[in-house]
Amino acid sequence: MHFPRLPVARQVRIPWLHDRHSHASVYAAFSGCPSLAGLDRTAALATLATLPEDQLSIAFGWHSARTPLDTRDLADLPPAIIVNLSMHGFVLTDSAVPLLAEAQPDVVERRGDAAWCERHLPRLLELFGRTARLTPDKLATFMHQAEGLGLGAVDDMLLPDEATFQVILGSPWADRIRCWATPRAFRTLSPSSQQAMAGLKFFTDGALGARSAALRGPFLDGREGFLLYRDEALLQVLGESHAFG
């Protein structure tokens, strides 16, 4: 019996891929923070109960539809911001409220307002990143995982603050992470860090996953997306951000 000769498999080297739109510093900061992904309600509450009592923590991976937490749950837990799996939405434990009330009074007051949270998502993501705190070890874990997927460089589209940027600058990946900042975060950076930014990041509408993106028509469930800026407001913000030039 004759079998056709098959081609010999060859290994081909390809260059590192470059992720041009990532939230690397926030994702990396979440490394080492407790994850509720895949946990049922009992296991999620047990995980949250182990958080420190004397500081504000971040827990992520919470699926609000599958693992709802009621007000009684939030009353008995250590201080924490519990971030939804999609990062669109969060809840605060009761003990977290006084820790945020002075610096972020509107976040505390409007935390249950989904539309307000969606309109202020960049600011909330920056808050999550600052609270989770990026460290050299967390950044190393994230970048090694990225390299395992073939990613050698990323554009971080939401740098939260100066401390985060200094961790990136002091890392072996400083020349492989290009950082962008919102106008709000940009104004808090040192002059040298401002000059090192790749650019300014503007969130102009919502997101597809949250059904808040500004499409030409409504989503299938009838929900309408929205713009965060009208033309005049966007021009004003651009004008106020002239320092970047």
Q: Give the number of domains.
A: 2
Gross morphology is globular
Q: Helix tally?
A: 12
Report the sheet with the most strands, covering strand number, pairing sense and barrel closure: 4 strands, parallel
User: Radius of gyration in whole Å, from Cα?
Assistant: 21 Å
What oligomeric assembly is this protein in? single chain
Task: List SSEs in N-to-C order.
Answer: EHHEHEEHHHHHEHEHHEH
Beta-strand fraction estimate: 5-15%
Task: Give the helix proportion (percent range).
Answer: 25-40%
Name the poorly predicted regions. Answer: none
Tell me the total number of β-strands: 7
Q: Mean of the pLDDT scores?
A: 89
Q: Which structural class do the helices and strands define?
A: alpha/beta
Distance between the termini: 73 Å
What order do the strands of the largest sheet run in, or round the barrel if closed? 1-5-6-7
Brief descriptors of the model:
about 240 residues; alpha/beta; Diaminopimelate Epimerase, Chain A, domain 1; 2 domains; 4-stranded parallel beta sheet; 3-stranded mixed beta sheet; about 35% helix; globular
Quickly describe the structure:
The chain has 245 residues and is an alpha/beta fold. The chain has helices at residues 24-29, 41-49, 71-75, 97-101, 105-109, 114-119, 121-132, 136-148, 162-169, 183-186, 191-196, 231-240; strands at residues 17-22, 57-62, 80-84, 90-92, 151-156, 177-181, 199-200.
